[in-house]
């Protein structure tokens, strides 16, 4: 039987009413109200780069995610702009800083940085083999405390700056350990986000 016109509207109203009565009967009035509240409650708002709260004025929103094993690539987001991701097809194994992945290019990239330049790093697969003694020292000058001990297949995310006076508060490292690895041969992926205060010379 195909219902059309006014009869169809009446049928829909009756079906909705029956469903409501059934929900009240099964769950009770309070539970039914909770069900309606669940469907009517707005989803939590997301801010730049998916942060749960907005950054204060003169701060930059960021999110770093290291690669997962050698399968899922890292992500680097700054001010809601995805700089590095598998979707953009600009990730590579090792250190993801722009598109730098070998020692010689890495040194050419790090040496001439201007004062106040922000540096975002997310590892993928193995970053340690991309580092020599000089590159580790340069990262230490950018505020890293973990880079000196970074070992084979460790996960690492880091935000530093040229000319930083203290050590960077934006750094995480997960050791490659057989006893605690999430993936076979690799530790779990690291995720870090936050708000970076702008230095006066960088303010627009």
TrEMBL record:
Residues 101-163 form the ILEI/PANDER domain. InterPro entries: FAM3 (IPR039220), ILEI/PANDER_dom (IPR039477), ILEI_FAM3C (IPR039475). Keywords: Disulfide bond, Lectin, Secreted, Signal. GO terms for molecular function: carbohydrate binding. It holds the Pfam family ILEI. One of its GO terms (cellular component) is extracellular region. CDD domains: ILEI_FAM3C. It is found in: Secreted. PANTHER family: UNCHARACTERIZED FAM3. Belongs to the FAM3 family. This is FAM3 metabolism regulating signaling molecule A. It comes from Maylandia zebra (zebra mbuna).
């Amino acid at each position: 039987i195909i219902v059309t016109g006014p009869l169809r509207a009446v049928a829909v109203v009756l079906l909705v009413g029956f469903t409501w009565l059934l929900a009240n009967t099964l769950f009770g009035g309070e539970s039914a109200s909770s069900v309606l509240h669940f469907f009517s409650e707005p989803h939590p708002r997301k801010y730049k780069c998916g942060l749960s709260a907005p950054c204060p004025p003169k701060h930059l929103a960021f999110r770093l995610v290291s690669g997962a094993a050698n399968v899922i690539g890292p992500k680097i987001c700054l001010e809601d702009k995805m700089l590095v991701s598998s979707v953009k097809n600009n990730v590579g194994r090792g250190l993801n800083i722009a598109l730098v992945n070998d020692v010689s290019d890495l040194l050419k990239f790090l040496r001439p940085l201007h004062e106040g330049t922000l540096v975002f790093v997310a590892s993928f697969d193995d970053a340690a083999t991309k580092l020599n003694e000089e590159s580790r020292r340069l990262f230490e000058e950018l505020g890293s405390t973990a880079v000196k001990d970074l070992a084979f297949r460790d996960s690492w995310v880091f935000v530093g700056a040229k000319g930083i006076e203290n050590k960077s508060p934006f750094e995480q490292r997960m050791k490659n350990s057989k006893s605690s690895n999430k993936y076979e041969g690799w530790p779990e992926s690291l995720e870090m986000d936050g708000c970076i205060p702008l230095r006066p010379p960088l303010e627009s």
